[in-house]
Amino acid sequence: MNLKDIYINFFVSKGHKQIPSAPVVPENDPSVLFNTAGMQPLIPYLMGQSHPYGTRLCDYQKCIRTNDLEEVGDVTHHTFFEMLGNWSLGDYFKDESIEWSFELLTKHINIPVERLAVTVFAGNDVIPFDEVSYNKWLSLGISEKRIAKTVEDNFWIAGESGPCGPDTEIFYFRSEDEIPESFDPEDSRWVEIWNNVFMQYHKDNNGVVTELPKKNVDTGMGVERTTAILEGVNDNYLSSIWKDVIDLIVSISGLSYEGNERSMRIIADHLRTAVFISADPAGIKPSNTDQGYILRRLIRRAIRHAKTLNIDINSDWEEKIANLILDKYQDYYKELVDNREVVLEVLRNEKNKFSKTLEKGLREFEKVTRDGKDIDGETAFHLFDTYGFPLELTVELANERNLKVDEDGFAIKFKEHQEKSRTASAGKFKGGLAGNSEVETKYHTATHLLNAALKVVVGPDVHQKGSNITDERMRFDFSCDHKLSDEEKQRAEELVNQWISEGLDVVVEEMPKEEAIASGAECMFIEKYPDIVTVYSIGDVSKELCGGPHVKNTSELGLFKIKKEEASSAGVRRIKAVLEEK
């Protein structure tokens, strides 16, 4: 049985309700481009909002992290991965959480106890040693020599302040060596497979820590890493998750995996991530900004590495790999079935565009090497940054002409580029229990009013396709086949302000999903919602499924102003708007 199925079945037997995986592109969360952790879609509920499924939840969640993209190509890094999680929202706490983790690992996944070790929070000047977790592990048969006490690695907090607490991490001895009697967390043969976070405190802006009245448990276990461990392979790409994809790349390229591991891993990883981004209901297309930029970069990086494997990049190689990935995951994620053709079209179009760019790059290479001089770092980086030439391709072409490449100079330029990217993206990748300020809450409500106004002004077929909210502004994407006229923009703005001035109450209800849809409630991605949903109604103007948060009355919003209307992608327009004090 698949690890995901074993996990879900186990926690359902312990009274948990399975919740659907959220889309990879988060709705109304400007702090990240993608859902980066299993707990991220549950942030409102960990902050105190009641969940329609109750207090015990479990799921498998699609996650994407691209902050260490250059590490992909080794045996463990992936841009897309699946997280298994179970949560207690003010229900059970440390005792049950630890006991069930141990039971699942040793009785249902059949990991020998002697291969397990754990860490617990050692305590500091403010928060005491986590004696409850320590004693629980002892009672389950983990020897004290296999329990390490740490401070920095066993305390979780999202930012500078907010919910926080100790965690206990579970490690597996991933080596054929004799298992040491004592556990050293710094020994790389011990690999972390599961983390149980106990949110029992609140830290305010002055650093004062108090006990939370309602304590939560948040756990996470990576599917890829755990599968590789269970199957006894030290290279994740040799596990059953990847083996058929790698075998297909071997077949297409006519080369063996040995000696070509890095390129084959990058192609497998990047195309899998590209499949999930392209299939997401948010309708992301390759572009030069935000999620579209990441998608473009992943596809082009896969193409570059296909070229290094002598794959004919104008063949249908990417379609064969994508179809295999779609087949592997379609039973778990419905959007892969619904959007199969969209995925294949995105990959094909981007491949065709990049093929032309590569040709331009080759012409540029001929130009810069015409004088027979070695290639300096700046030129090598220009080929990389503008034409997508990886350094290894530039070196390979230079070698054919008996020219050298200043690889150190390239590395300096590349590092400068990375630093600029990190600085520019700092706000995009921070994640955690940030956001949902008072201002952002107002903007959440304003998106509902704008959606309703556009249905009146443009037509009832207008639907929300995405949104992005910060403290400064709201961005709203909607289906529309034309640029809005000045009259349409003015009328939409006037309608929103009329509804704000009417002081309409915002009413929240919970009901079965089918009942909500039958009542006329709108939602952006119906498949992401559980069977019991939260519905927000604004007078008789708007009724939508949404996770919140929202104001109590529209009179709290201020003055609504549309600042810009532009194209987002084919058939999708984008409005940027602000709320000002009246």
In short:
By secondary structure, the protein is α+β, with helices and mostly antiparallel strands. It has 17 helices and 16 strands.
> Structural class per helix/strand content?
alpha+beta
Can you count the helices? 17
Radius of gyration using CA atoms only: 26 Å
Please report which band the strand proportion falls in: under 5%, 5-15%, 15-25%, 25-35%, 35-45% or over 45%.
Answer: 15-25%
The average pLDDT value, as a whole number, equals 89
CA distance, first residue to last residue = 60 Å
Low-confidence stretches: 424-435
Features:
582 residues; 39% helix; alpha+beta; globular
Describe this structure in words.
The protein has 17 helices and 16 strands. It has 582 residues and is an alpha+beta fold. Strands 1, 2, 3, 4, 5, 6, 7, 8 and 9 form a nine-stranded mixed β-sheet that branches. A four-stranded antiparallel β-sheet has the order 10-11-16-15, covered by helices on one side. It starts with a helix and ends with a strand. 42% of the residues are buried.
Any chance you could write out the topology, listing elements then pairs?
Blueprint: H1 3-13, E1 17-18, H2 43-46, E2 56-64, E3 80-89, H3 94-108, E4 116-121, H4 131-139, E5 147-150, E6 155-157, E7 162-173, E8 190-203, E9 209-222, H5 223-230, H6 243-253, H7 261-279, H8 290-308, H9 317-329, H10 334-338, H11 340-368, H12 377-387, H13 391-400, H14 407-425, H15 438-457, E10 464-469, E11 474-479, H16 486-501, E12 506-512, H17 513-518, E13 532-538, E14 542-545, E15 559-569, E16 572-580
Helix pairs in contact: 3-4, 6-7, 6-9, 7-8, 7-9, 7-11, 8-11, 9-11, 11-12, 12-14, 15-16
